[in-house]
Amino acid sequence: MTLVDAAGAAPAPGSPVRRGPGRPRDAGHDARILSAAIALMERGEEVTVGRVVELSGVSRAAIYRRWPSMTDLLAAALDQGREAPPLPYGDDLLGALLEGYTSPLPAMGAGYSEERLRLRLRLALSDRRLAQAYWRSHVSRRRSGITALLQAGVARGELREDLDLEATIDLMNGVFYYQYVVRGVSFDDPSMLPRCREALRIVWRGIVREPDAHPG
Amino acid sequence: MTLVDAAGAAPAPGSPVRRGPGRPRDAGHDARILSAAIALMERGEEVTVGRVVELSGVSRAAIYRRWPSMTDLLAAALDQGREAPPLPYGDDLLGALLEGYTSPLPAMGAGYSEERLRLRLRLALSDRRLAQAYWRSHVSRRRSGITALLQAGVARGELREDLDLEATIDLMNGVFYYQYVVRGVSFDDPSMLPRCREALRIVWRGIVREPDAHPG
């Protein structure tokens, strides 16, 4: 498959998302807390700080020092293992988009799976606050790479100068989510990639600057 | 808000989806069976034929005569109350698309709600067979209106003759789903409609036939 809000991301911000001031922390704690949260979510259990303490062996204070709310912790846990393939920056912007969006599943990160994506989307649909926390702390950051790529295209005069970057990225990402969520197809469905590539070409024609555009 | 796979649909197929041969049926039974299924889903209970019999008072045989599997019944129940606003067919194809996709929530059907949409998407993400059944029996049918509208545009020479209709509709629908599923915004979020309208205009530029296109 491909991914969508992964495509063209900047280097992933450090995990966990928030770092407060204070003494240096045990990196092993982060991993234990996140694993405990993921395990609870995968079992369909509610993720409470008490259960995370129990499963991870990390103290309540240390958990809250890292993630100020359970929603923030859930968002970080759902993003675990997710990586963003670097987009090639070059002259061939359309090629970079097609490649970035249709790179194979392992480019999402070896520790990430389609099951994890489905879990994240289900939980986001049940809990709008979680969806918004995930959006702020993960998706919107991952979009920085593709945003920069498009901005460079605008600056070079290759893309329309009035381009709405948010709408453009929502369109390109949205067509992939539609495959999973509405069509119910899997990452490796053979019909999916050609359809999505064609969709990206439609977007391309909609964002590229017409060669004969006259000023004014 | 708007909807997406609702936009531009043909008259909704009769409910329930499948009609077998045989004696005329009690229409009240359909409604009771569907309500029972919805009630079970909303409570998070598993929808078994036994529980549907119990709640609806309709016999097992009568249920299976209408829906050959629980997956088919679930798909029909999730579509209950969903209506498809007719798209105006006229000369202004872009106007029709913008209007059809951004018509207010009541156009989805008075008996339909954002909560129902979220429930449908959550269940579809948990059960790919349900997603595919819903796609076949409901979404793909609802897309027939927008498909006809685009085909007419191609026939008139307004849209590109090599237009990939499936990719086009996936793009336009996908950008709306992205808002709910990934951004976590609601139907009435003030930023959503302008962004989606702009996305539809990008698609439009990508599908319209260039006026100076030379043949060959």
Sheet with the most strands, sense and barrel status of chain A: none
From N to C, what is the helix and strand string of chain A?
HHHHHHHHHH
Strand content of chain A: under 5%
Please report the total strand number of chain A as a whole number. 0
Q: Classify the fold: give the CATH topology of the domain at 4-11 and 85-105 and 134-207 in chain A.
A: Tetracycline Repressor, domain 2
Unreliable parts of chain A? 1-23
Describe this protein's structure:
- The structure is a homodimer.
- Chain A has about 220 residues and is mainly alpha-helical.
- Chain A is about 60% helix and about 0% strand.
- Chain A has helices at about 25-40, 50-55, 60-65, 70-80, 95-100, 115-125, 130-140, 145-155, 165-185, 190-205.
- In chain A, helix 1 (about 25-40) packs across helix 4 and helix 6 packs across helix 7 (about 130-140).
- Chain A is elongated, with a radius of gyration of 19 Å.
- Chain A starts with about 25 loop residues before the first helix and ends in a 9-residue tail after the last helix.
- Residues about 1-25 of chain A have low confidence and may be disordered.
- At the A-B interface, helix 6, helix 7, helix 9 and helix 10 of A face helix 6, helix 7, helix 9 and helix 10 of B.
